[in-house]
Design a protein that fits this description.
By secondary structure, this protein is α+β, with helices and mostly antiparallel strands. The chain has 3 domains: 9-134, Acyl-CoA dehydrogenase/oxidase, N-terminal domain (Butyryl-Coa Dehydrogenase, subunit A, domain 1, Orthogonal Bundle), CATH 1.10.540.10; 140-244, Butyryl-CoA Dehydrogenase, subunit A, domain 2; 247-391, Butyryl-CoA Dehydrogenase, subunit A, domain 3 (Up-down Bundle). It is 51% helix and 16% strand. The protein contains 12 helices and 10 strands. The protein has helices at 9-16, 27-44, 48-54, 62-68, 85-98, 100-120, 123-134, 246-280, 292-321, 326-350, 362-374, 379-391; strands spanning 140-143, 159-163, 166-177, 184-191, 194-201, 207-211, 223-234, 238-243, 282-283, 286-287. The strands form 3 sheets. A 4-stranded mixed sheet has the order 1-4-5-8. A 4-stranded antiparallel sheet has the order 2-3-7-6, covered by helices on one side. A hairpin with a 2-residue loop joins strand 2 (159-163) and strand 3 (166-177). The protein is elongated. The model has no long low-confidence stretch (mean pLDDT 96).
Length: 397
């Protein structure tokens, strides 16, 4: 039998879809996927190794993301695209096949910042911010995590105190995506009423964003430490619909759902890089794809990719039906990110020494996925969410 052509990527993808999962998608869902895939191929893939190497986030692409229709993708109204959860998931997968950092931009902008304003904001806040954010004219960030409050947001120390009709915001946040290039940040703070959300323009006096670097992961992205030195905010800055941790947790669940799909993109790209390399690389007078150990590695990767895709699609269908529960999202995030890391690492081994060069994607995906594994809930947090669900006993404290 003749070996498959390593340059015929579409044929390799068809062969790798052993379960025929493409047939489970509608024509419109495939069209959305293909449109985002083409964008990644032309606007991200040729440049991403250099961006990662230099630690550069291409903020200039924000309007192009808006035109593509992936910012606030599954939100309705206010200039948002209003696509389905499955369509958003497919877009997240294709974006992360380019790079986790670029998919993270879409998640922070759409699921976290825009999602919070859309769900909990006033009509005035929605009209002011959402249309411009959907177009990529305004970049948003989401301030929840703190230096001493990562997995336990209930212990946050950032505080907002009433002062007449205004609020005074003081505190720190850490690992806040996009904060140094954003025009607006949704900040969560303790108040006498409980945790509240605030829409904070980043040019407010007392707002400071410090980029966290150097990093070995998510280098084509921006993460910051935020400092709030007595920022004075009007009462109109408060998200009126959110009191307590329900507000930020609702946004986190939206972001976690996107990760279920996105991690598969990094894994698929790693697998495809390894498969194409194995078909083209000769050792001992034959392509290494013809050796049993290489085939075992490729098959093990494919098994988890196909299972992960079924899981993501099932969760997406439930989300569109309005039946998806938080513990189900935790199951998807825990499984798909964990398996994606294993796939990226195994793919790197097939590339041998060449696999540490950034011209090949698996080493970059493996590094990025360590961040994806940590944010929006660590493995341990999602394990305990599932543990509490199946036993009825909380084990967080």
């Amino acid at each position: 039998m003749t070996a498959h052509d390593p340059d015929d990527l579409e044929a390799l993808r068809a062969k790798s879809d052993v379960l025929g999962l493409d047939a489970l998608l509608s024509a419109e869902e495939r069209a959305v996927r293909d449109r985002v895939r083409a964008f990644v191929d032309t606007e991200i893939r040729p440049y991403i190794a250099g961006w990662f190497d230099r630690g550069h986030f291409p903020a200039e692409l924000a309007p192009a993301f808006g035109e593509l229709g992936v910012l606030g993708m599954n939100l309705e109204g206010y200039g948002c695209p209003g696509r389905t959860a499955v369509e958003y998931g497919l877009a997240a997968l294709e974006l992360e096949a380019g790079d986790s950092g670029l998919r993270t931009f879409v998640s922070v902008q759409g699921s976290l910042a825009m999602g919070s304003i859309h769900r909990w904001g006033s009509e005035e806040q929605k009209q002011e911010w959402l249309p411009r954010m959907a177009r990529g004219e305004v970049i948003g960030s989401f301030g929840l995590t703190e230096p001493t409050a990562g997995s336990d947001p209930s212990s946050m120390k950032t505080y907002a105190e009433r002062d007449g009709d205004d609020w005074i915001l003081t505190g720190e946040k850490r690992w806040i995506g996009l904060a140094s290039i954003a025009q607006v940040t949704v900040v969560w703070a303790q108040t006498r009423e409980g945790v509240r959300g605030f829409v904070v323009p980043t040019d407010s006096p007392g707002y400071e964003a410090v980029v966290l670097e150097p990093k070995g992961s998510m280098r084509a992205s921006v993460q910051c430490e935020l400092r709030f030195d007595g920022i004075r905010l009007p009462s109109s800055a408060v998200l009126p619909g959110a009191v307590g941790l329900r507000g930020p947790f609702s946004a986190l669940n939206e972001a976690r759902y996107g990760i279920v799909w996105g991690a598969l993109g990094a894994a698929r790209d790693s697998y495809e890089a390894a498969l194409r390399y194995a078909l083209a690389r000769d050792q001992f007078d034959r392509p290494i794809a013809g050796f049993q150990l290489t085939q075992q590695k490729l098959v093990d990767m494919l098994l988890e990719l196909q299972k992960g895709a079924l899981l993501a699609l099932h969760l997406g269908r439930m989300k569109d039906a309005g039946t998806l529960r938080p513990e189900q999202i935790s199951l998807g995030k825990l499984n798909n990110v964990r398996e994606a890391i294993a796939i990226a690492r195994e793919a790197r081994t097939i590339l041998g020494g060449n696999g540490v060069l950034l011209e090949h994607s698996p080493i970059r995906h493996a590094a990025n996925l360590e961040s994806v594994r940590t944010y929006e809930g660590t493995d341990e947090v999602h394990t305990l969410i599932l543990g509490q669900h199946i036993t009825g006993m909380g084990a967080f404290r």
